[in-house]
Design brief:
Layout (H helix, E strand, L loop, with lengths): L9 H12 L2 H13 L3 H29 L3 H8 L7 H34 L7 H13 L2 H19 L4 H25 L5 H9 L8 H14 L6 H6 L8 H29 L10 H12 L3 H34 L4 H21 L8 E2 L2 E2 H28 L2 H8 L10 H23 L5
Antiparallel strand pairs: 1-2
Helix pairs in contact: 1-8, 1-12, 2-10, 2-12, 3-4, 3-9, 3-10, 3-12, 3-16, 3-17, 3-18, 4-5, 5-7, 5-14, 5-15, 5-16, 6-13, 7-14, 7-15, 8-12, 8-14, 9-12, 10-16, 10-18, 12-13, 13-14, 14-15, 15-16, 16-18
The chain binds phenylalanine.
The site of phenylalanine has 14 residues, from helix 1, helix 2, helix 10 and helix 14.
Length: about 450
């Protein structure tokens, strides 16, 4: 069994949780999902979902974790030893982590390629059309994205095999505020671009006719993804929370930062999108198509370009390590393997999955399932189905299965914090969150529109 400690300080707790939460989901995924779903209308729904669904779910995961002080699968076993079915929720989380790692590592690989291009100064030598062509030929070369992806997966393996040490926590404390600064700088800088007006109305002026059940579903998926929810990561992190800490403070701080950083990325990216005539619905490539254009034109763009792609990579690795930790902890504990061997096996599995994802993006690739390439399939399968289902089961567990007193004691830290908010949280966890998720699924299945 692993030795279980707790986070060392309040700031350390927020930094560690923040390191997992703030990642490619905010900077890379949010702008393109918002772009595909109508911009401001989506963002409005996203903020509501984060407050009313994601925070209660995060509190539920924390309380399961802090009470049981165990890995995702054992946590359920400790709370209800005679209902083994619940351990399946832990397994679902582990499967979700593997699939997310499959496509997440590909994007992190792109960040490495772009970091190298930024260092070599190649953005400055190209106009928008050339930048786009260059990106397409990178993806279609096949071996280049695969090589970067494998390098990224291997780096994760090295870190996880040594245990999540002080190094990564310290790194997080430094990198997360720095990333925030760079994003603010970039957002301010894009205010000087011609496309600003169009971008601000795209981000802030909702067209309510665009809000549909599918926009809601996407917002739930994006919010759970961005806050690392619905797959037990926060159960594991919750097991490291100190008994006297306020869960409300951690969940509140992290949720607010998450939403702010996502909107800030939108403000940094959309002006460039409109100025350079890039389609806001270009999908996963959006950030990679839009930003090099700004770097090529702005003063100091060379240095900022390098910083940005470095931070994109850093944000990715602090999140992917938390994903890999879920798998490695499970493999090493349940199959009684050393952490090193468990990490090696996980790296091999993730390496295969992510190489297939990268290859499936080549033009004419035959790695398709139901018309979708593997990359898109893993992305939408996890966010649209697996995380919402995982989240649903977790709130049902916390609200209806777990002992009521125990849940209250955890959420309020034995009556110390948020006792007035507690009844609201309890009602959201028991009724509101599960009901909304069920409604959304019915819509998805076409039962209700
Ligand atoms: N929350 C991370 C991000 O926004 C991604 C992630 C998802 C990490 C699920 C862990 C678990 O990039």
């Amino acid at each position: 069994m692993r030795k279980r400690g707790t986070f060392a300080s309040g700031f350390g707790t927020v930094a560690a949780v923040g390191g997992s939460v703030i990642g490619l989901g905010n900077i890379w995924r949010f702008p393109y999902i918002a772009g595909e779903n109508g911009g401001a209308a989506f963002i409005l729904v996203y903020v509501l979902v984060s407050l009313l669904l994601s925070i209660p779910l995060m509190l539920s995961e924390f309380s399961i974790g802090r009470h049981s002080r165990s890995n995702t699968m054992r946590a359920f076993h400790k709370i209800v030893p005679n209902q083994p079915g619940w351990q399946g929720v832990g397994l679902l989380g582990i499967a979700t982590a593997l699939l997310i790692l499959g496509f997440y590592s590909v994007i992190a690989g792109w960040a490495l390629e772009f970091l190298q291009e930024a260092v070599s100064g190649s953005f400055h030598a190209q106009n928008p059309t050339e930048l786009k062509e260059n990106f397409t030929s990178f993806i279609n070369s096949g071996w280049r994205p695969v090589a970067w992806t494998l390098l990224f997966v291997a780096m994760n393996g090295v870190i996880v095999s040594r245990g999540i040490q002080k190094g990564i926590e310290k790194f997080n404390k430094l990198v997360t505020p720095l990333m925030f600064l760079i994003l603010v700088g970039m957002a301010i800088n894009s205010f000087s671009l011609e496309g600003l007006r169009e971008a601000v109305s795209f981000v802030f002026k909702p067209d309510f006719s665009k809000i549909s059940a599918s926009v809601f579903m996407q917002a739930v998926g994006q919010s759970f993804f961005s806050m690392s929810l619905g797959m037990g990561i926060m159960i594991t992190y919750g097991s490291y929370l100190r008994p006297g800490d306020s869960m409300f403070r951690v969940a509140g701080t992290v949720a607010i930062s998450d939403v702010c950083i996502a909107i800030l990325s939108g403000l940094a990216i959309f002006p460039a999108v409109f100025t350079f005539g890039i389609n806001p619905t270009s999908g996963p490539e959006l950030v990679f198509l839009a930003l090099p254009n700004i770097f090529a034109q702005m003063t100091g763009g060379y240095v900022i370009g390098i910083l940005f792609f470095f931070l994109l990579f850093a944000a990715a690795i602090t999140s992917s390590v938390s994903l890999m930790e879920v798998v490695v902890a499970y493999v090493s504990e349940e199959f009684r393997l050393s952490r090193r061997l468990a990490s090696l096996l996980t790296v091999v599995a993730v390496g295969i999955l992510s190489s297939l994802c990268a290859l499936s993006q080549m033009q004419g690739s035959s790695l398709l399932v139901a018309g979708k390439n593997l990359f898109d399939l893993f992305d939408s399968l996890t966010s649209t189905y697996m995380m919402p289902i995982g989240g649903f089961l977790i709130v049902i567990f916390a609200g209806w299965v777990m002992n009521k007193e125990l849940f209250r004691n955890e959420i309020t830290s034995e009556g110390r914090f948020g006792t007035r908010l507690y009844p609201v949280v309890r009602a959201l966890v028991r009724f509101f969150v599960p009901a909304v998720i069920v409604l959304l699924f019915l819509t998805q299945l076409g039962v209700w529109k």
